[in-house]
């Protein structure tokens, strides 16, 4: 099974669309309410980062499976400014926008696998996976 | 040339409409023609034909007026904009074909003919799209206002205690509104404790949490205490995982428990009375 769907993030309301899609997909895979909330929140953070820093980008959500394990893969990609210091961005409390600075490290904790690929001035691709247990 | 086209359409309107209808039926899944009664289709199409003729014969002002009325009417029928635009294209194509068959369209006058038709169809397309987008804009605006009205009202429940129930997604604009209403309400109702109820907020991410923390801080500055109530179990877990620090203010799972604590804070309690 390889279902994929995506939402373009252009305005603040697209964040809502992205997480709605995430919630539906998570429900579809069979995640419980707590994991649904985790996935939706993670998508919300990623989408908001796109909206805040890159202005536009895309959130792609894929249902994946590995053997008996089912899961949901979230890919957040943008062609924004990139992240200059990834190590710092992953620190709790570090922020360049006056927020709480819990977004990226939070997403990493909310999901099971987490990967950032970023090039300054070229963009960022973040992939995060949640497996169903 | 204008006149020629107009008279031709006028004379052959039935034939053109028949052909147009066949084309539309081929083009569209039959659903559309099943939903609409024959009469509605017929009158609308006839009106449309007249409109096209008047655009070539009548003065510009009358035409503009008629065009506007027609667009508004079409929007009211609730037809999809794609369908209407396709109908317009098909109509023009039918006229081309028919006039070519009738021998009125030759190679020598083809260019001027095309110019006339383009000048004629383009404003029509624009007007239809314009009418549609106006209706959409209006709807969106109305909904925005409706949303704002439901957005964030502070309800004085008891003396010194107010509640702000939050329902739905919190975006930047709404967060600003929450802050304003909260502070204004606290001062107006002389509240000492404010309960922010987030039972109806679907997702609490760092942005929402940040706004709540800021609002609570501001409430503290005007001399009241802010409590966060209605934290569902799954929200509690995500807040902890995100690493958001909410230790600075009192939080409870339900509004009811929050209310009990708020009453205790203001040295009051709800007691049961025995009525004979």
TrEMBL record, chain A:
Residues 34-133 form the Histidine kinase/HSP90-like ATPase domain. SMART domains: HATPase_c. Pfam families: HATPase_c_2. This is Anti-sigma regulatory factor. The lineage of its organism: Bacteria, Bacillati, Bacillota, Bacilli, Bacillales.
UniProtKB/TrEMBL annotation, chain B:
PROSITE patterns: STAS. The keyword Phosphoprotein applies. It comes from the Bacteria. Residues 151-262 form the STAS domain. Signal peptide: none annotated. Keywords: Phosphoprotein. Gene3D superfamilies: Globins, STAS domain. The keyword DNA damage does not apply. GO terms for molecular function: heme binding; oxygen binding. This is STAS domain-containing protein. It comes from Psychrobacillus soli.
């Amino acid at each position: 099974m390889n279902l994929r769907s995506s939402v373009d993030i252009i305005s603040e309301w697209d964040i809502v669309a992205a997480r709605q899609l995430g919630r539906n997909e998570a429900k579809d895979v069979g995640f419980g309410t707590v994991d649904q909330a985790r996935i939706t929140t993670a998508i919300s953070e990623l989408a908001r980062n796109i909206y805040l820093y890159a202005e536009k980008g895309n959130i792609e959500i894929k249902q994946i499976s590995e053997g008996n394990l089912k899961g949901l893969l979230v890919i957040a990609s943008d062609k924004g400014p990139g992240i200059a210091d990834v190590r710092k961005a992953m620190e709790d409390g570090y922020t360049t926008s006056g927020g709480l600075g819990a977004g990226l490290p939070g997403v990493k904790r909310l999901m099971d696998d987490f990967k950032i690929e970023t090039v300054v001035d070229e963009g960022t691709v973040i992939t995060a996976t949640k497996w169903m247990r | 040339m204008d006149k020629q086209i107009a008279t031709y359409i006028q004379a052959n309107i039935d034939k053109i409409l028949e052909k147009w209808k066949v084309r539309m039926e081929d083009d569209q899944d039959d659903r559309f023609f099943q939903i609409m009664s024959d009469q509605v289709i017929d009158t609308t199409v006839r009106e449309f034909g007249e409109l096209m003729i008047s655009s070539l014969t009548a003065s510009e002002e009358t035409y503009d007026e008629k065009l506007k009325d027609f667009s508004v009417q079409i929007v009211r029928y609730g037809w999809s904009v794609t369908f209407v635009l396709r109908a317009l294209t098909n109509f023009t194509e039918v006229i081309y074909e028919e006039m070519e068959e009738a021998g009125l369209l030759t190679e020598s006058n083809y260019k001027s003919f095309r110019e006339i038709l383009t000048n004629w169809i383009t404003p029509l397309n624009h007007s239809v799209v314009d009418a549609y987008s106006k209706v959409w804009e209006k709807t969106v605006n109305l909904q925005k206002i409706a949303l704002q009205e439901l957005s964030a009202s502070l309800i004085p429940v008891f003396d010194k205690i107010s509640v702000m129930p939050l329902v739905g997604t919190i975006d930047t604009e709404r967060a600003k509104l929450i802050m304003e209403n909260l502070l204004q309400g606290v001062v107006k109702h002389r509240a000492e404790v404010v309960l922010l109820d987030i039972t109806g907020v679907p997702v609490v991410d760092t942005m929402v949490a940040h706004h709540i923390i800021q609002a609570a801080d501001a409430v503290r500055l005007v001399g009241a205490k802010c409590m966060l109530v209605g934290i569902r179990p799954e929200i509690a877990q995500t807040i902890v995982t995100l690493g958001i620090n909410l230790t600075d203010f009192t939080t409870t799972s339900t509004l009811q428990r929050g209310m009990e604590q708020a009453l205790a804070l203001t040295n009051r309690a709800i007691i049961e009375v025995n009525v004979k």
